[in-house]
Amino acid sequence: xxxxxxxxxxxxxxxALPLATDDIPGERQSRWFWVSFTxxxxxxxxxxxxxxxxVPQLLKQWDPSQATxxxxxxxxVGGVAILVTTPLFGRLSDRSMSRLGIRRPWILLGSxxxxxxxxxxxxxxxxxxxxxxxxxxxxxxxxxSMTVHTLFADQIxxxxxxxxxxxxxxxxxxxxxxxxxxxxxVAALGQIGMFLIPGGISVLLSLTLFLSLRDIRRxxxxxxxxxxxxxxxxxxxxxxxxxxxxxxxxxxxxxxxxITVTSYLYLTISSRFGLEDPARIAAVQTEATGVFTxxxxxxxxxxxxxxxRTRRRKPTVxxxxxxxxxxxxxAISFGDIAFFLIGIAIVGAGQGxxxxxxxxxxxxxxxxxxxxxxxxGIVALAYLLPGIVxxxxxxxxxxxxxxxxxxxxxxxxxxxxxxxxxxxxxTRVKGVR
Length: 433
Description:
mainly alpha; two-stranded antiparallel sheet; 2 strands; 74% helix; disordered N terminus
């Protein structure tokens, strides 16, 4: 991609590796961009919060004895869908000739697909229809998430990537809390209210970035897309780019660790503390999400500043991963809600430290800005694959010694192991401090 193919003109990406310097291919943004960029991360968090409450609650109402297994099936199907589509969206966005730019069309398309998914979930009366709705929301928000990750390479300079990673990670975490709280607050309105009200808010917030982004525009057609190029959408050689591979593995294990907890949090609280009242379960989940968010925000900003000031990413990631492991171990070691909340708070602190450096670390391990969308699509696989792997293993882990699928302690043990593996993987990255 030469300077003649983009507007505004930028230096040849492959020549200067802008992702490892303070250069960016994008133009100067308005103040409104920074607000809407953060709001869009908030939107993706709200969508996650809705899914973590409304979907399992609906499944529990339909068939309590099969709720865990049915949730695993839905999460697996949804994971496969976004595993295929999100990297393709990234590849296609790099090649977009739209007058809207190379990223904005995907924000709009993703938001509309997600809204369609919320509508389908709101009227679902069966597992098949509910699964379709979940898949649409995941695909739509996957497109939006791909875009906001790519903007770290397009628009955000290296010197502020960690603090912006902290800000956006905090926004996503707050979004999850808002999604959980809003869904619980409107649960009395029934299935339609649970999905459409918070879902509509999520979609509207994501569209603010579409309106504010001064996007890069391609002015010359890209090279013809070959079949080999299409397959390479899902691959970047670990032998040629070992730092990228180790950073990818770190994100995979860390994401799998937290998804193991969040995907089954509603059912974990219900089973472990013997709660049946949906309002009470949602209240405890809101408390857990609240303490997680508070500590996440605090540590994200503290370690974001430290990471940018020292220009060191790896120590922050290691600290975050190990702190998460400690919190998970504490959360599952005692059958008391208070200890559970303390453990989740420590997990939140660890996640805050982790997200303060995670995006910065990944962008600084990318080969170049030329294929940032495609390569960040591969990065997306690190948090999409756990959406498939976790439900499959989660189904079998919860069945250990429990035919009803309620051995959630086994899930937390697996989550601890994966957090430790994440810490080990990041130490293997050589090109980033």
